[in-house]
Model the fold of this input.
Amino acid sequence: MKRKSLDREKCPIARTLDVIGDWWSLLIVRDAFLGKRRFGEFQKSLGLAKNILSRRLRKLVSHGVLEVGAASDGSAYQEYVLTEKGRRLLIVLVALRQWGETCLFEEGELDLLLVDQKSGQPVKPLELRSKDGRILGPDDLRTVGTSD
Amino acid sequence: MKRKSLDREKCPIARTLDVIGDWWSLLIVRDAFLGKRRFGEFQKSLGLAKNILSRRLRKLVSHGVLEVGAASDGSAYQEYVLTEKGRRLLIVLVALRQWGETCLFEEGELDLLLVDQKSGQPVKPLELRSKDGRILGPDDLRTVGTSD
Done:
């Protein structure tokens, strides 16, 4: 489906969705965080058509979220690895995960937890805070022009 | 495009994307946070086809992200308002916004800032922390089964 590109939008949310908002893209990024690197690994994990996977990978590479490198084992395979820009998507994935955990799972249904490796304890829920540390909700916010 | 539903997936990220991962859905939620309520307001803001907007709104309502109510001015219009579940998507939108701000805008290009109403200062970047307050990055995490 052709659609209006959002890449020059002034809204950072729209511009972000232009890069990672296609169906499958964030699941590819999730898998990359989980250590998957090869076309076949992503395909097996996600079960999507090869042409779509290849289009999604190409777009993520062109936007600098993933980079392509030689296989770590010296074989002829190409590998897709998160760049620093890609690794910064961690917070987005954690936000999606925590919303799902809270809003889409029944009590006792969740069977995979995201934990801090050192303590083995679940990570803290993300909180939006002001510079001086107050917790902020939707009604505490507004957007202002930088030239205001 | 028909595709595998992810609504019974064990991964909370996949399940979340099943609800809000369609193209346009998060921009509709963003607009709802900005106070838009009517079909025509969303349509004008987003410039998408009416049939797609109507499908997206229906899906967000069916998943309890938006609810439909009578117009606040007593007219015959229907209004779409975020539920509590919808309002919890704030963190997801802020995470998308902050990634975009950091990774997709040139120096000086950003002209809309998200600020704390009380202080007028930009909100703090989201941070992933452990229960005891340490900042966590991708390499500090793992997923574990709840039955482990």
User: Anything to note?
Assistant: The radius of gyration of chain A is 18 Å. The beta strands of chain A are 66-70, 78-82, 112-116, 141-145.
